[in-house]
Amino acid sequence: MSVAGQGGFARTGETLSLRPMRLLIIEDDREAVAYLIKAFREAGHMPDQASDGLDGYALAQEGDYDVLIVDRMLPKLDGLSLIRSLREQGVTTPVLILSALGQVDDRVKGLRAGGDDYLPKPYAFSELLARAEVLARRRAGPGTAAEATAYRVGDLELDRLSHRVTRAGQEIVLQPREFRLLEYLMRHAGQVVTRTMLLEHVWDYHFDPQTNVIDVHVSRLRAKVDKDFEHPIIHTVRGTGYVLRVDEARAPGPSA
Amino acid sequence: MTTLEDAPAGRLGNLFRTTAFKLSFAYLVVFATFALLALGYVAWNASRALDDQMVSTIEAEINGLSEQYKVGGLRRLISAVERRAGEPGASLYLVTNAAGERIVGNIDALPTGLIVDPGQTEANYARIGGAQNLEHRAIMQIFVLPGGFRLLVGRDVAERDRLRAVIGRTFGSSVGLVMVLGVIGTWFIASRVLRRVDAMTETTRRIMAGDLDGRLAVAGTGDELDRLAHNLNAMLERIGELMRGLRDVSDNIAHDLKTPLTRLRNRAEEALRTAETPDALRAAMEGVIEESDGLIRIFNALLMIARLEGVNAREDFQTFDVAAVVQAVAELYEPLASEQGLALQVETEGAPLTLRGSRELIGQALANLIDNAVKYGGPSGEIRLSAARVGDTVRLGVADSGPGIPSEARGRVLDRFVRLEEARSRPGFGLGLSLVNAVVRLHQGTLALEDHAPGLSVVITLPAGDPTGG
Prior knowledge:
The complex is a heterodimer of chains A (256) and B (470). Chain A is 36% helix and 19% strand.
């Protein structure tokens, strides 16, 4: 929250997760690395860098990072081999793979090698940030978010077993897909999720929807979850995606 | 590349190296060997037969003479010999005393000491009335009679030797002829083959140097070289097609991307010129990013289409339930459709509705079609999504009730970057249907655009992938 209002990346102003992450960027393109380092710092995180696979491998083993961002094409040791070796060494740090190869089978290869997420280039930084934060949070509490049987954010409650959703005590009836959408948003409460992430995790498809198909689903959900209540809990983050969170500070200006 | 052909002995060397030559030569050697053996056997047998015949004649004579001897002793024998020796075509006879001096017979002289030992032999002799030197030759049988007298019966071998010579000559000339014909034939065949192969080599060299319309000559014999030439020509045809396609695509891409790229630049430039406030600049930059995103989408779509048309695209195919995909995509687009006033209907029938392919790609194709239906399906109406099993195919359909596509434009719209006039006001780049087409072709199906009266009906027919066999 504290970043909103600073210059630079207004688009990412909303994306601060619960705590700053330590991340390692393994990428040999100097310009890209410089850009990423700057952007992550401005978002309040602590990025390190390595410019070839061997360096990256060594640093990843020593350091205690929340998330690794690995480019697939690296000198000395390529990205996928690096990840495989790390996994063999028992390093469980979540890995986000960046690659110019963006077809479905490339994704599958990357994930099979041990990666946790895959982002084709060119990407929007906000997308990268959102996904990195989600991965980092996953690491922080593997036993909490994924296996909780119920989520509660503010006055919104969702029970995963009974599929009951209530807000301020009132029951909200949702279609199955709306339920899954809300569940995903609540699981990542406080984190920005992009439309692509929603398409991937709620619908299990990886293509780029041409129009604002996802937006309409979210607005339908909002109509049920937000409309009749005082404070909206689902927010749009312009240029990036959506975030579900309780709006604490009702600051004079609207959060962008 | 020219070292072999330019060497002076190269041409001949090439000839010797051809498979045709080696094969022909091998056949020649084998055949000649067999011919040699066969003819040799015949010659040898013939010669032996002649010998045998002579020996049996001699035996017959001897039997007759020994009868005479038994009946009338030496005197009878001598008169029998005298009588026989005088007859025309007579064998050779000689009776000598113990010292080897002639008593009666038609042999004048023999090699010294020959008459001493009994048995069969072949030796020279001289005839009575002929020249004194031992110029004739005969097979003889010599007997020792009581009292030391010798009896010799023989047959001249001149006849036999003459026949032997004839056989030998025939044999020799046959084999010689075979060899000569063989060598000529081999050389002829091999050089014909070599000439054809050389012609093909020359043509391919020309083609590689740039004459892309060149084709290999087909001799019309239907043999393996012809078949090779046919297949190579088909391959060249396909390569020509692909290259023309590539050229077309690059031309189109260059042409069609100029517009958004120019637009991008113009926006940025305009912002530089006219933006007064940071907010205005920010808005302009955001616009630039939006345009860039659009361009990135175009490139990604083009890449995907190109990849789909490539050879290895079918590697990761799996069998999946297409009804589920249809339902999922419909469900994804339903809110958007209803916002536009369009009712989305889904009908699936028949089972199993399985396909062998990529779930993602089929999903994307359907999404593109529904997207089009939502964009161009008219202000209100319905979109009908269907999946059905028809025989051993799966038929997927997306139909809307909008203005549709006029029949003359239906071929064009599948090309890249084609957008009809009516569509230009809406967002999009004209790649949606091209992608769908590429996906359908990858799955070995067909795409048909029909009149839904009113509206457009897109029908995709794909071979069903049965769960067991795939």
